[in-house]
Write a structure and sequence with these properties.
- By secondary structure, this protein is an alpha+beta fold.
- It is 19% helix and 34% strand.
- The protein has 13 helices and 37 strands.
- An 8-stranded mixed sheet has the order 30-31-33-32-34-35-36-37, sandwiched between helices.
- Helix 8 links the parallel strand 34 and strand 35.
- The radius of gyration is 25 Å and the shape is globular.
- The model has no long low-confidence stretch (mean pLDDT 95).
Length: 701
């Protein structure tokens, strides 16, 4: 354990008592002063942060650095190992689109991607054209995040959106690809998405308001100032976020408004002489749906009529409204339809059953279908699709905890599968050195929770190995059984690594998500503890040497288990942790609060929701007792989990815990939700966090 006698006294945040009452309950908050009134200004310009708050955050960073000083060699070793598994001059497989093939590559030592294209059938890269050099563009910024690039339909222009603060306010610029020159156009406060009009004279984008909510869709006309942009759609409900895109055949604009349980889609046909939006199905609470062009019409993924895991309907062009939908694929309970991809003559679906994905290919010409699946005990599939409408070729990715990522081109007509890329691990990797298991952990109510386990083949399953357990469990997000170059460093040190597929995610179907939200949220926390217990009870791991990690809403999970079962975990990493749940859901001025009410409940309007959130909100449940060693991380410009959440959590823990265990925080003073933006800078953050965990668990090298 760390020798705390050689480090400074831990910072103590001052206490400024405040309180507020709702539904007959009074909530006290001694650290609310850490939330500055000008927090939105801070996201745009961190230098305007209140000096007293900055001094406290800096003191926490200094303390964490001092405490972790003995792990410097371990941090460097972890960083070098993980970096050594990255092919520094890597390149994505080219994607064909019209006369070109587009791809991204990296240079040795480079932090950021280089977007390129070449002639469609050039296999030598002799015709390469660099469209966007991320290293060059980022050189003057401490933080640089490219939301994406979008090339016009005629391949002459490229729009790109970048955030240089970490606040997720993106600026869109346009580049002439023939000359490489930037056009004078600049669109501020974009959410990052871009959809070109077919004539390449304008593009559509989503604009964010003062509360950081994407609520308007504008059309920007090239050569005109942003003030001339045409308002196409405005969302008046602060609980709904909007997004914009176009169909694979470039014929339709699609605008979507949604919260966590309801969606609404508007479309406009570029082939019509007048640009006019049409609502496909007016929003109805609890109805989620999305559209995909395929064949001569539309496919609609919908949960209407009790289709919890979704069904697929069909509609003709011009008759997209809900009353015209016709059944196409029936709902199968437990088989979650996750996504769709449409072409002129084919339609593909990615679905999951019992936490394992499958791709199904439908030939729209002859009505036949077939599936693509694999045989490993646990694996992940990703449907990459194609940028072309009239094609027989699609693309998908495959990986597992032991198998590096593979990319396949797949001929949907002949069913020929071609491996076009395998993730290289320059320092070496043998699949046979590692073992994967899928176990089912019994939870409190008899439900069995999937747990994906990976360890080195030489690690004995005799109860002596330490455990790394990861979880998320919110928003219906499934945790794929994917390959991680980082986790190999844990496995190589004799750790058993595992992911708990807890309720709140959709790993076992959409019902799995519904059983871990609102009044059933505590299932998420109990499931995670059950996953830990199952591995201990099997005699595989040492119950006194368990490290847990989760980020964002998974950080809320970390805060909850720390309160519920602190004796079962030796160390906990809460990355940008959503731990001030009740206070955040009571603050409707925050970017995500109204859209989050369907996920957690609205404690402003609902007494039951208030009491439910108060019963598990991590900060509100910190007690005078012993806690695991805890490391919290945050980002000063994070609009999703604001910086004061981890800061208040750490201050509360340090005040109330009765043992002398570690309570640490690192606040990135120049980044947001995702931490450092460079691919190697982010690895240093991972190395720091895992060095903390390993040191606590007794692994010092």
């Amino acid at each position: 354990m760390f020798d705390l006698s050689k480090v400074p006294t831990p910072p103590r945040a001052k206490k400024v008592p405040s309180s507020e009452s709702h539904h007959g309950h009074t909530r006290h908050d001694d650290y609310g002063w850490l939330r500055v009134d000008n927090w939105m200004d801070v996201m745009a310009d961190p230098s305007v942060l209140d000096p007293e708050v900055k001094a406290y955050l800096d003191a926490e960073n200094d303390y964490t650095k001092a405490v972790l000083a003995p792990t410097a060699d371990l941090q460097e070793a972890l960083f070098s190992e993980i970096k050594g598994r990255i092919k520094e001059d890597d390149q994505s497989p080219p994607t064909k689109d019209g006369p070109y093939a587009y791809y991204v590559r990296y240079r040795t030592g480079g932090q950021y991607a280089i977007a390129c294209r070449k002639d469609r059938d050039d296999t030598s890269d002799a015709s390469e054209q660099i469209l966007f050099d991320g290293d060059k563009e980022a050189k003057d910024f401490d933080y640089f995040r490219l939301a994406g690039t979008s090339v016009s339909d005629d391949h002459r222009l490229m729009a790109w959106a970048v955030d240089t603060k970490g606040s997720e306010f993106f600026t869109i610029r346009v580049r002439d690809l023939a000359t490489g020159q930037e056009l004078p156009d600049a669109v501020e406060r974009s959410a990052g998405g871009i959809a070109w009009a077919p004539d390449a004279r304008s593009f559509f984008y989503t604009w964010q308001d003062d509360n950081h909510r994407p609520c308007r869709v504008y059309q920007h006309f090239l050569g005109h100032p942003q003030s001339d942009d045409a308002l196409i759609y405005e969302e008046m409900d602060p609980g709904f976020f909007t997004s914009v895109g176009s169909t694979a055949d470039d014929r339709f604009l699609i605008i979507t408004a949604n919260d966590h349980e309801t969606s609404e889609t508007w479309i406009a046909d570029f082939h019509q002489p007048a640009f006019e939006l049409k609502c496909v199905a007016p929003r109805e609470t609890g109805h989620e749906y999305d559209l995909e062009r395929g064949g001569e019409g539309w496919f609609i993924r919908t949960n209407q009529d009790g289709a919890v895991d979704f069904q697929i309907m069909r509609a003709d062009i011009g008759n997209e409204e809900r009353e015209h939908w016709q059944p196409w694929q029936a709902h199968v309970p437990g088989r979650l339809i996750k996504g769709m991809d449409g072409y002129k003559n084919f339609f593909t679906i990615i679905q999951a059953e019992k936490a394992l994905p499958t791709i199904v290919v439908h030939n729209l010409s002859d009505g036949t279908s077939h599936s693509i699946s694999f045989d490993e005990e646990a694996y992940a599939l990703g449907l990459h699709g194609s940028d072309e409408w009239e094609t027989t070729e699609t693309r998908f990715g495959y990986e597992s905890p032991t198998t590096p990522g593979q990319v396949f081109d797949y001929d949907m007509a002949s069913q020929a599968r071609t491996l076009i890329k395998t993730q290289e691990v320059p320092s070496g990797h043998s699949i046979d050195d590692y073992v994967v298991h899928r176990i089912m952990a019994p939870s409190h109510d008899g439900v069995h929770v999937p747990v994906t386990v990976m360890h080195h083949r030489d690690t004995p399953l005799d109860g002596t190995a330490p455990l790394y357990l990861y979880g998320y469990g919110s928003y219906g997000m499934s945790m794929p059984a994917s390959f991680s170059i980082k986790r190999l460093s844990l496995a190589d040190r004799g750790m058993i690594t595992a992911t708990a597929h807890v309720r709140g995610g959709a790993d076992m179907g959409y019902g799995w998500y519904l059983d871990g939200k609102m009044e059933k949220k505590t299932n998420t926390f109990i499931d995670f503890i059950a996953a830990r217990d199952a591995l201990v009870d099997r005699g595989w791991v040492d119950g006194t040497r368990v490290g847990a990690e989760g980020g964002s809403a998974g950080g809320m999970l970390m805060g909850a288990i720390a309160n519920m079962a602190p004796e079962k975990f030796a160390s906990i990493i809460g990355a940008v942790p959503f731990v001030d749940v009740l206070a955040t859901m009571l603050d409707e001025t925050l970017p995500l609060t109204p859209p989050e009410w369907p996920e957690w409940g609205n404690p402003l309007a609902d007494k039951e929701a208030y009491e439910r959130l108060a019963s598990y909100s991590p900060i509100d449940r910190v007690e005078a007792k012993a806690y695991p060693a805890i490391l919290a991380t945050g980002g000063l410009t994070d609009p999703r989990v604001t910086y004061w959440e981890p800061a208040k959590w750490v201050a509360t823990l340090r005040e109330r815990r009765t043992d002398n265990g570690l309570t640490l925080m690192h606040m990135n003073m120049g980044a947001g939700h995702g931490g450092a933006s460079g691919r190697f800078d982010s690895l240093r953050e991972d190395a720091r966090d895992w060095a903390f965990m390993l040191w606590v668990l007794g692994i010092k090298e």
